[in-house]
Automatic annotation (TrEMBL):
InterPro entries per the UniProt record, alphabetical: Gprotein_alpha_su, GproteinA_insert, P-loop_NTPase
Region feature Disordered, mapped onto this chain: 106-190
Species of the source: Hevea brasiliensis (Para rubber tree)
Pfam families: G-alpha
Gene3D superfamilies (UniProt xref): GI Alpha 1, domain 2-like, P-loop containing nucleotide triphosphate hydrolases
The keyword GTP-binding is annotated on this UniProt entry: yes
Keyword check for Lipid metabolism: no
Record protein name field: Extra-large guanine nucleotide-binding protein 3-like
Keywords: GTP-binding, Nucleotide-binding, Transducer
């Protein structure tokens, strides 16, 4: 494996990914047909990739109700029970819109009106609570609030655009370390608190207590304080419902909260009761999906069809009310008008006939009668399926396919790992056997008495990126040690070879540097000698300097440098490593080399070189097994392919988990994550291909704090301050439409190096931090580093806020320390929880009280430290 080759590669990441997946030396799938390779498509502007979007609507000219329609059209949540008595004028306005889902909605509000109306009336709030406030960005019509049209609830669309002087703005302004810290301690909850103030009023006793939580009724959203909760809800045979709401269907927006205990409930009930209530809440008949809430291929399901869907071997998980399409031959399943979303059991007799335009494709290529989407076509092409226009394929559930009418299986689209991988990248479903999506853990499954479809969370993808040297590799590796699978023997073997060849690379860099330094030093000596008019013999005696080595070493040096120059290192190493180990060791200890090492920055030699060269003999041995520290420090482990990913889950030990521990059947399923690290090289060139990371749950951006005085250049580009380079990439990401909805977490890494540096080099050396003026109360590094850290964090927060109007989450790390990375991921998980809740809150469902918010506010993680 050649790290140097990998380093030199400026390939499109696609090719790198494919290269990894294909056998060594195999041609890339599209090498001959680059015209349809994704690599090519992403290189030149304009981007042919269609980003799903809703046509812009003019909010001013449309009524509030229109906004709620738009949010449904945007596919945020099809479960929202909305009836919109739309005027003729508005219908024509809508039907003129290109977006088919909008048209669908118009049908919605006319054809299936009675049923939806029912849902809305059922969801009516007895208490007449009408306050629903969103905290969304101004002008983001697709994020507008959805409220109720019928009943006493009023549709309120309100944008909480922070105004100058708003506490949010103050919080983020840098005044002093303390106030920033305090502001950050409030964290996202401060927003939640503002919104839910009204909801702090107990629906029963009418008392208001800002500090105490409220539990909400799943049906009518009435909120009760801990004193009134049991009186209002009784024994909760169907979970958290007012006594008068028992038997009524739940508010669909709360479906994801079913069975998730809140802190207030666990306070007023014993663990055993809580368990029973949560079980009832999830399993009782009244809270289940009703068949007519699911429309499959244009037809509402019947009771027995729903049972078939939910009871099959691989049911669609986390099913919400809405319109879906289902291809019973291949098992593909998706939301109406969208690309396939998952593969479920095939051959289920549910819903109507699969319509040609089920997924709104426009490719003139058909699978089982459905015109496929652009993205599917791309995957087919990558899988080398010939698909000219007007091809009709017949695809079976095992992935084998044939052309319609030809009666001959042509191949299997899932046959290649690369296809499955590409599907995974594109968020297209791939069948089981996908190496990247772990199979259902059957033991965990059998423990659960809860219907699986209510429980299963989908994998949440976390994108980790940062400029070269910021530490993303280190963080990734730490995460793997902490939560991931062990390295396989093959992986370890590769890492071993990599470490060995890295060692030779470091050595050759030193040798090359030595030569240069020696020449320079001798030339200088010579110049001085000539100027001083010394005799020739004296000059000759001066043919030696601190960088000089003996003749034998010189031979080896020349030989090694020759090999490196031909780029043929892999041909010699590691086969030769053992043989040369003593020489490497001897070299490394040579004073000339040590002198050279002192000037390593000039040579761009990483400081880990020392760590590995110190162990030259051990590393060169056949028996060498890289330690975890070696792996952590090794360059290139997650690098050579441009993209690395791993899957993991956290054991969630939040405060409420105590009650779950009593009985394993109530254990909530572990949240599954995929951590995806992209090589920072992919971040240049305008980040065009980032579009393939469309559905990231969060973006984790990593910046090395200690970069503030470093210079940096990309390729042959101009040199600039490395912190500024990081900032620019960060900005590009924040502006990227793909990540518009993803929360950002900034990891300020290398805090240790930062602490060391901050007293030697002022932060203001970086022009962006020019106004940093530390309060010099105590003249020690720690406080200074602390203040500087907050200053940097606030600079990023301000930048982020100015672009997105949102709050940036910041955490500091010392990635070389495992515990620090563990803390960072705990923080990230809290941010995700908060983000989940925030969405709920925006739609006016759970408010700030139930479902986690209390934990968040007392969480040690939601702050900037
Ligand atoms: N002192 C210190 N060094 C760190 C820290 N995190 C990473 N490093 C080192 O910084 C160097 C660069 O880190 P990498 O993990 O390779 O970061 P990266 O450049 O983003 O990742 P690649 O692009 O794969 O190289 C490595 O030598 C790390 O060991 C940290 O918190 N403190
Ligand atoms: Ca690196």
């Amino acid at each position: 494996m050649s790290t140097t080759a990998a380093d030199a590669e400026e390939d499109n990441p696609w090719e790198q990914v494919l290269r990894k997946l294909l056998p060594a030396g195999a041609p890339l799938p599209d090498e001959d047909h680059l015209d349809y390779s994704i690599a090519v498509e992403y290189q030149g502007p304009p981007i042919p990739y269609q980003v799903p979007r809703v046509d812009p609507l003019n909010l001013d000219s449309l009524s509030v109700r229109t906004s709620s329609l738009v949010s449904i059209a945007d596919d945020k949540d099809l479960s929202v029970p909305v009836v919109a008595p739309i005027t003729g004028a508005k219908i024509s306005k809508f039907s003129r819109l290109r977006n088919s889902s909008v048209n669908v909605l118009v049908q919605d509000s006319t054809s299936s009106r009675p049923q939806i109306e029912k849902a809305a009336v059922n969801g009516e709030n007895e208490e007449g609570e009408s306050e629903q406030v969103g905290n969304r960005r101004e002008g983001e019509e697709d994020e507008a609030l959805v409220g109720r049209n019928e009943g006493k609830r009023v549709n309120v669309v309100k944008f909480n655009a922070p105004t100058p002087g708003d506490s949010e703005t103050e919080e983020d302004g840098y005044s002093s370390t303390q106030s920033s810290a305090a502001a950050d301690a409030l964290g996202p909850t401060s927003v939640v608190r503002k919104e839910s103030r009204k909801k702090r009023v107990c629906s029963r006793c009418g008392k208001r207590n800002r500090l105490k939580g409220r539990e909400a009724c799943l049906v009518c959203d009435a909120r009760y304080c801990s004193n009134c909760l049991l009186k209002a809800m009784g024994s909760m045979p169907e979970g958290r419902k007012c006594v008068s709401c028992i038997g009524h269907p739940i508010d669909e927006l709360k479906r994801s909260s079913l069975g998730k205990c809140s802190r207030i409930l666990s306070k007023v009930c014993s663990p055993l009761e809580v368990r029973q209530i949560m079980k009832a809440e999830k399993e009782c008949a009244a809270n289940q999906l009703r068949p007519e809430q699911l429309i499959v291929n244009g037809r509402p399901l019947r009771q027995e069809e729903l049972a078939e869907v939910l009871g099959c071997r691989s049911p669609p998980q986390n099913l919400k009310p809405g319109k879906y399409w289902y291809d019973k031959d291949s098992g593909l399943w998706g939301k109406e008008g969208k690309k396939p979303d998952r593969i479920i059991s095939s051959k289920l007799n549910v819903g109507g006939k699969l319509p040609l335009d089920a997924s709104n494709g426009n490719t003139k290529v058909y699978i089982n009668g459905r015109e496929i989407t652009k993205i599917e076509l791309r995957v087919l092409k990558l899988a080398k399926v010939q698909c000219p226009r007007d091809t009709h394929f017949w695809v079976y559930d095992d992935g084998s396919y044939e052309e319609e009418g030809q009666n001959k299986i042509k191949g299997n689209i899932w046959g290649k790992a690369s296809t499955r991988f590409i599907c995974w990248l594109f968020s297209l479903p791939a069948p089981p056997g996908n190496p990247f999506v772990p199979k259902e853990d059957t033991t965990a499954f059998s423990l659960r008495s809860v219907p699986e479809y209510l429980e299963q969370g989908r994998v949440q993808k976390l994108l980790l990126l940062g400029l070269e040297g910021s530490g993303t590799s280190t963080i990734f590796k730490q995460a793997k040690f902490l939560y991931g699978n062990k390295f396989t023997p093959e992986e370890l073997q590769n890492i071993k070879v990599m470490i060995q060849s890295n060692m030779y690379k470091y050595l050759s860099m030193l040798l090359e540097g030595r030569e240069r330094f020696e020449e320079e030093a001798l030339l200088e000596k010579l110049t001085t000698a000539v100027n001083a008019e010394e005799s020739t013999s004296e000059v000759e005696a001066n043919q030696h300097c601190i960088y000089s080595i003996n003749q034998r070493s010189k031979h080896f040096s020349d030989w090694l440098l020759d090999i490196m120059a031909t780029g043929d290192l892999d041909a010699f190493f590691p086969a030769a490593t053992r043989e040369y180990a003593p020489i490497v060791d001897e070299f490394w200890k040579d004073p000339a080399i040590q002198e050279t090492y002192k000037r390593r920055e000039e040579l761009h030699l990483p400081d880990v070189a020392k760590y590995f060269l110190n162990q030259a003999v051990e590393i060169s041995s056949n028996e060498y097994e890289p330690s975890e520290k070696d792996i952590l420090y090794a360059e290139g482990v997650t690098k050579s392919n441009g993209l690395a990913f791993m899957e993991f889950s956290f054991d969630d030990r939040s405060p409420m988990s105590e009650i779950y521990n009593e009985e394993s059947e109530c254990l909530p399923p572990l949240a599954k994550y995929q951590l995806i690290r992209i090589d920072s090289k992919g971040l240049h060139d305008g980040c065009k291909w980032l579009e393939m990371f469309e559905d990231m749950r969060a973006v984790i951006f990593c910046v090395a704090l200690s970069d503030y005085d470093q210079m940096w250049a990309y390729g042959s580009g101009p040199c600039c301050n490395k912190m500024l380079a990081s900032r620019d990439i960060f900005e590009t990401l924040v502006r990227h439409p793909c990540f518009r909805d993803a929360p950002f977490v900034l990891l300020l890494n290398k805090y240790d190096a930062f602490e060391d540096k901050i007293n030697q080099v002022p932060l203001s050396i970086c022009e962006w931090f020019g106004e940093f003026s530390p309060v010099r109360a105590h003249n020690n590094n720690q406080t200074l580093a602390h203040q500087a850290y907050y200053y940097v964090a606030v600079k990023f927060k301000e930048l982020y806020y100015s672009i997105s109007g949102r709050k940036l989450f910041v955490w500091q790390t010392r990635a070389r320390e495992r515990a620090s990375v563990d803390e960072a991921f705990k923080y990230i998980r809290e941010v995700l929880k908060w983000d989940d809740e925030k969405d709920d809150n925006t739609y006016g469902i759970t408010g700030g009280d139930s479902f986690y918010s209390t934990e968040i506010s007392s969480s040690p993680y939601i702050r900037t430290e």
